[in-house]
Amino acid sequence: xxxxxxxxxxxxxxxxxxxxxxxxxxxxxxxxxFDNMPESFQSSERGEAMEEYIYTLEEYLDALDLDELxxxxxx
Length: 75
Prior knowledge:
mainly alpha; rod-shaped
């Protein structure tokens, strides 16, 4: 792969890393809001939905593994 294409991948990695930071912050904020809810609300429909959102964000963050892309850039 040539230098220009590697640079484009490096740029994409930076954007993905920034997106991951945003998703992590949203997940952390949602987790904090859930943790600060009274237990009776945590087991409500809203609380269960919040738990699902947190789980979904964690799954997506885990799936965004940038190691293989970085290997291409490092060549």
